[in-house]
TrEMBL record, chains A, B, C, D:
The lineage of its organism: Bacteria, Bacillati, Actinomycetota, Actinomycetes, Micrococcales. It is an enzyme of class 3 (hydrolase). This is Formyltetrahydrofolate deformylase. Its EC number is 3.5.1.10. It comes from Cellulomonas marina. The gene is purU. It catalyses: (6R)-10-formyltetrahydrofolate + H2O = (6S)-5,6,7,8-tetrahydrofolate + formate + H(+). One of its GO terms (biological process) is 'de novo' IMP biosynthetic process. Keywords: Hydrolase, One-carbon metabolism, Purine biosynthesis. The active site is at 244. GO terms for molecular function: formyltetrahydrofolate deformylase activity.
Length: 300, 300, 300, 300
């Protein structure tokens, strides 16, 4: 996960000069060994920082240690950063530093289904979801009025087999140009190339339907209906090369029964999808999701 | 599903001679066409029956119609049965008739895990789960004290590759001898042969863990842990030839997170398993589950 | 519940003259006694109706019987209606008849919170929620752009202690003029008078937050936070004289913990509110909710 | 919460002399100010402790800071304790120290309902619930065979208005004599006196049914049925003077509908009760529950 916050920036949030303390969020991971917490808390205490929220987890399986701290401190960003850099060598520390609540610059990709975009845009506006929706990119035009209502720039980028490479280049250019930190695949019905997935690794969240058992192949809702499933679900996850198989951030289910036809299953599925996606986006934007190999640590 | 109730029996429940009305439960299915409900309700009205609960469902996909009726009536069983038989030809009706609340004779198969047996036995005793637990059959002996505490006969039937056929013959003999209506695989860790599955089709309920996505192969909980799933689930279903693939009766999930190690996942999984299994057994025993091809209709 | 459908109307849906069968939804209630189902199914069979969905329930406590039937029939509405009227006397039958899927004319009242209005409008447009949103009435103006985006007429009706009676008169006039069948109080933060509640009895659905235990008095979220509740919920119900005490249609909860401040509780509460309200409105609009004294029967 | 662990004990767990590190769980609370985490982590690092799990929370409302740490360390208990005592003055620290997984000595009180006792005893035996059930105390005798099956001493202590004081004295004597750390009211249908509640403050967990809205007075399930609630719930909480009003540890709900009679509601309610109680007992026994005024912090 790359965050704006670890880039030098003279006017970045958190640089308020005179005394008004900033509320920072710090995440870090490193091989697990004694002394990490003491070193980090020492750094923060030395800067007169007051820890307001902190969670740690040591994964006995991978031998990695993870930590997320929210701390109020009056020290300038540079001082925090140099303190953290000083720990990199000793502990093999990887870290990110951001200001609590800073809106993460987010690009939403969709096709025709509006439920996820509508939900994210509404929550951004009314529920303090800490994202800034800088663009909607779609291979169709049906989402344009919704984007306009929420004041989000809409980019129509049609995709055919022949133009896929060009379309992905256009997307990457937008990501660059708009300083996009997070791409959300909000029921975007096109496969992304492996190259694109790698280029944006850890910065793309996808949502897809999930069933117990899972159904391979086409028309999964038809298969689920034929099998008479009693639960339908959705999984939000980071995208890796294998589109539907990256580290899981959030999952949810809804109860169904024999009276639900395929259309009703799809409608209920959309409800679960937007709920799970909204949570995943919020947790990511609040720097609550850390990668632990193929798993996620979610410090809710 | 075969029920005691469709066998002629002079002293069967519901034959109380003088006037005291019996509370019947009737299930039926047939090709969907106008007039079925009228014909059935006419039969019941003609016997002065009072419908206390009724549910119907027409599956537009399979063209089948399903109905479950609870009715109080003073008429003797023979009269009800001959009325129903009269409708068989006209509507292609399949039906079952039983007395509401009659305990279904149930045999539980287990191996070493006790959670499902403990839960069923406790609910039978204290929550009016309408089953009579006539035997526990196990390839181990650890469940024997628990069975004894609940006053259930325990049969130790070890299974090896060499004795599988013999063990299954012993099971079938017990089913016959004890007049068993329902077999519950309560974490029984042996594969049943196709022949046995067919012989007991519609009368065996299995419970197994389920994940989104599902994990094939050995050690599914380890796979689920490695993938960082956020939900673990369980599926209760009728057994067909393909052990884990029969018609689903009930599913449930429990929320987990990165702090749950494999053992904790297993413990939570057991909680979901016993809950889903108990519901499936109750609904089956109350004749609320009807088969619709590969799906179930559950009239809860 | 009063439905458009029981009014004489020459061009009402379902009057299509020639042969194309209509999909009807019929609800009825009456004192429970033998023969009702037979009489109703006889009426429908006599009109060559084909029952596609049917649910019945006899409440042993109140002695009332409830039924909801979906039936396809080519007979004109008048014939169905006269058949039903013929049963009124014999069985003490109360009934409604409507066409499946006909949008119920709905007026939404709100104040400043947009989550419920946004959710209903979005579901109406994209999830086949069978309502027509004919007006938004608010004592504030913040909901106006949202209403406009969804093409719903917006009426600003300010309310002060001095103008309450006038405001309610204006509401009643709108209900009359726009032929409103259902009023949804979507976080409308004004108390309705007893007279208004009575005038619209059975046609007003309200949503409010709910806790276990419940908290009386002001600032319930603050109270819930102080008490450290682990669940917050919402209840959708019909409005009677006592605003928060009418028959319950739907309830739902969300899990919270000590890290949720009052603001976070409110945000999660809004999520539960819109979910529970959307379900209640759908079930009402699909004629799935029948009143049984102070309870509801919900034929989902 | 008083734990065995903060008492001097020469042979206490964790005193293993030679080198084999002990897995400790430490909880602490104090007024929130900079430097606490640093001081505690410094103490642990100085003892070569390795933190395996840690959670912190600062309550902005009460100004209190809470922390739970699991740490492996080879240092003897006395060294840890003296280090912690050294911090008491500086930070106003309150703390507890125990060995991870040490079974908490628990006394269960019940009347006639067996579901909670059965669930706790089963989980203790098969799911590593870290409690030792040292006694069952009941004003009835129906739970005696169940207690015997699980090998728990059963004490029949009848209660009448005349003998209440005597019965409570007997209970307190048992608590003393058996070194009881936790008392679980597992549907114990007698009111405890204020004096007893105070004497055992923070050491008694109660479970009771909960509804939205709540129902005061007798027969709450009848009231809930009359009102047509769609959810029934349960709340597990610490007992204070006001029996049903102490700090909430856990809550859960189950969905119900109009077909559930009062008996069915009670049966489902028991399911929710035992689930919520088992979680509360587990979290308490694992020292995951900290008191924050009238709220609990649950570090799950």
């Amino acid at each position: 996960m790359s965050h704006r916050s670890d880039q030098p920036a003279t006017s970045a949030p958190g640089d308020a000069s005179a005394g008004a303390p900033t509320h920072w969020v710090l995440t870090l991971s490193c091989p697990d060994r004694p002394g990490i917490v003491h070193a980090v808390s020492g750094l923060l205490a030395g800067l007169d920082g007051n820890i307001t929220e902190s969670q740690q987890f040591g994964d006995a399986g991978t031998g990695l240690f993870f930590m997320r701290v929210q701390v109020t401190a009056a020290a300038p960003r540079a001082e925090l950063e140099s303190g953290l850099r000083a720990l990199e060598g000793e502990f093999g520390l990887a870290w990110t530093l951001d200001v609590v609540g800073r809106p993460v610059r987010t690009l939403v990709m969709g096709s025709t289904a509006a439920h996820c975009l509508n939900d994210l845009a509404f929550r951004q506006r009314s529920e303090a979801l800490p994202v800034e929706l800088v663009a909607v990119v779609s291979n169709h035009t049906v989402l344009e009025p919704l984007a306009q209502f929420y004041g989000i720039d809409f980019h129509h980028v049609p995709v055919t087999a022949a133009t896929r490479a060009e379309a992905e280049a256009r997307l990457l250019a937008l990501v660059e140009e708009l300083d996009v930190e997070l791409v959300v695949l909000a029921r975007y019905m096109q496969i992304l190339s492996d190259d694109l997935c790698r280029a944006l690794a850890g910065r793309v969240i996808n949502i897809h339907h999930s069933f117990l058992p899972s159904f391979k192949g086409a028309k999964p809702y038809h298969q689920a209906h034929d099998r008479g499933v009693k639960l339908i679900g959705a999984t939000a996850h980071y995208v890796t090369g294998d589109l539907d198989e990256g580290p899981i951030i959030e999952q949810d289910v809804e109860r169904v029964d024999h009276t639900h036809g395929v259309e009703a299953l799809v409608a209920l599925g959309q409800d679960v999808e937007r709920r799970a996606l909204a949570r995943a986006v919020r947790w990511h934007a609040e720097h609550r999701v850390l990668l632990d190999g193929h798993r996620t640590i979610v410090f809710r």
